[in-house]
Amino acid sequence: MKEGSKQSLMGLLNDLDDPWEEENQLPKKEEQEARYTYIKHIASGGQKNISSAFDTKLHRTVALAELKSDLPDQETESFIEEIFLTASFQHPNIIKILDFGIRKEDTLFFTMELMLNSNLRNHIKKNETPATQNLEIFLKICDAIAYAHSKGVIHLDLKPDNIQIGAFGEVLISDWGLSKKLGSGLKNSKSQGTPGFMAPEQTASGAELSSATDIYSLGAILSFLFSKVPENEIPQGIHAVIKKAMAQDPEERYQKVEDLKHEISNFIAGYSTNAQQAGFIKELQLLIRRNSQLCITIFTSLILITCLTAYFLLNLKDKNVNLAQSIEELEITGRKLSKSVILEKQLNTELVNRELKVAENLMQYPLYFSSPASSSQKALDIYLRQENTQTFNKKLLIILLIRQDFDKILELELKAPEELMEIIEKFAQKPKSADGVLKELKDFVELLQTMNNLPNKPFSNLKKAYMERAVYYSDDVVKPIIMSPLIIKQLIKTWNPDWDTNNLFYSIHNSSLTLRGHELSVLSDNSPYSSHYSFLRFLKFKKLDLRESNIAVMRHLNGLDLQTLDIRETQVQNLHPHKATRDISTVIINPGQFPEESINHLPPAVKIIQRK
């Protein structure tokens, strides 16, 4: 390795010293050698060799990536950039960097999660799963790439070999070696990528690269998922989506990954895709398919009515019946027709009720929190097409409040308590962005604060049903790089009304978050209107200090990517490993705070520091 690159990496490594733990030191090369055992070569790429290895510190098998020797400085810097770019991501479908540094003969390396099952190519090759079932995998891939794009990064090498599939359905995007930061005028310097999955602009020197470049690759992956299906049997909706995503002209593709994901979600739910441009007959076919049981019942009823009517008419024609008998039979048929009409009305009512149930589910966990903007729009459309929208006053009010559509609330003349109506009228005057949300961050923070200031009686349930969904909606639409701590303070305060928001201290530089206050006891909620994740997950930090708070259970940390946790002088009584804390490497406690038996339940890789 070149000396300049070595010094660069050493400097970056030393910058990561933990200010909470002074005794942490950068591991020596000899220690790195001893840490990784049972190394077995798996594959080689353009700039690195991949091996499986057993990490004696983490007590798990990992993937060990080592930079090939005698590569130009540009490739070495690219390898280092890949390490720090991947490490900066916090998403369940993007592979995690576990360790990095310098090994034998000054070889740069990093380790990451190892999927023992297969990559997407092998998964499709070995499994006979219907192609439509694999669309759930595709949605997870879209989630990961949409997240990367929201952070200003494009992958540029999306292909089945770079998508790892776990034995239990885990999906991880790997190999970010060719990725680049998005920016105006980002040009392609040389042909890089994988034929069959790389966009046309990746082969043309000087062509502009954008998020549409990754969308082309996503279209190719979608096509690959149906590679075992004869072309004439691929669903029209999927074929149209693939064609649009892989358009030669980037301007003709989907402009956002969320749009592509929305199309596939529609297909899975039994709706037509926009790319398909379905006519009336196709929409009717899809409606029948979505409601097959109801349609069968209605169709059977119509056949029965038709048969009875035909039977009567034939008897009337073929037999010499008197007028009285004819009238009697007409009356009988009329009664049967009336019953059928009543049955049809009942079936229509059931169909409407099912649609309303769909709208309710769209606004609850988990559907809403996977795609807040799309889910809330679908639910809103369902309620607005009902005959009497006033019947759904409360449902429409909460959805439009979440979507910050105050003008629509006033237009529909929805009813609300006087205090709430004052808020609606006030914020209807605030400037909006093109996406329909409040343009200024300070206005959104003020909105949350004003909602929190409503008296708990009778507004407590409304505030809890509104607050987290409103924050998720804003995050989905605005996509900030880092959410403002001012928003998180208001989110926490909804469930901890007596807590002082000045007791939150956030440092991006130190990657740390400190929370104080005995009034603080809730950091997550398991209601249908909550994500079931910690309210803190919108902030980026590795160290969490909960000293002198009233937090009692680890589930309040669910969804956080932590390395160090300080729970001195808290109400936590159980240190048994929890899915919310499985990746924590250091826990700081008071001397004697927990019995030795409880501490021994933790994995050996977790370091316990007892400190006053």
Keywords:
16 strands; alpha/beta; Transferase(Phosphotransferase), domain 1; single chain; Phosphorylase Kinase, domain 1; 6-stranded mixed sheet; 20 helices; 5-stranded antiparallel sheet; 612 residues
- Percent of residues in helical segments? 40-55%
* Alpha carbon gap, first and last residue: 44 Å
> Would you count the extended β strands for me?
16
Estimate nothing, just give the exact number of structural domains: 4
Q: Major sheet, described briefly?
A: 6 strands, mixed
Low-confidence segments, given as residue ranges, are 12-27
CATH names the topology of the largest domain as Transferase(Phosphotransferase), domain 1
Helices and strands in order, then pairings?
Layout: H1 3-14, H2 29-35, E1 36-44, E2 48-55, E3 60-67, H3 73-88, E4 97-103, E5 107-113, E6 118-119, H4 120-126, H5 135-150, E7 153-154, E8 163-165, E9 171-173, E10 180-181, H6 211-225, H7 236-245, H8 257-268, H9 280-290, H10 292-318, H11 323-362, H12 367-370, H13 372-384, H14 393-402, H15 406-411, H16 418-427, H17 441-452, H18 456-478, H19 485-495, E11 504-507, E12 512-515, E13 543-545, E14 564-566, E15 586-589, H20 596-599, E16 607-610
Parallel strand pairs: 12-13, 13-14, 14-15, 15-16
Antiparallel strand pairs: 1-2, 2-3, 3-5, 4-5, 6-8, 7-10, 8-9, 11-12
Helix pairs in contact: 5-6, 5-8, 6-7, 7-8, 10-11, 11-13, 13-14, 17-19, 18-19
Keywords: ATP-binding, Kinase, Membrane, Nucleotide-binding, Transferase, Transmembrane, Transmembrane helix
Protein name: Protein kinase domain-containing protein
Pfam families: Pkinase
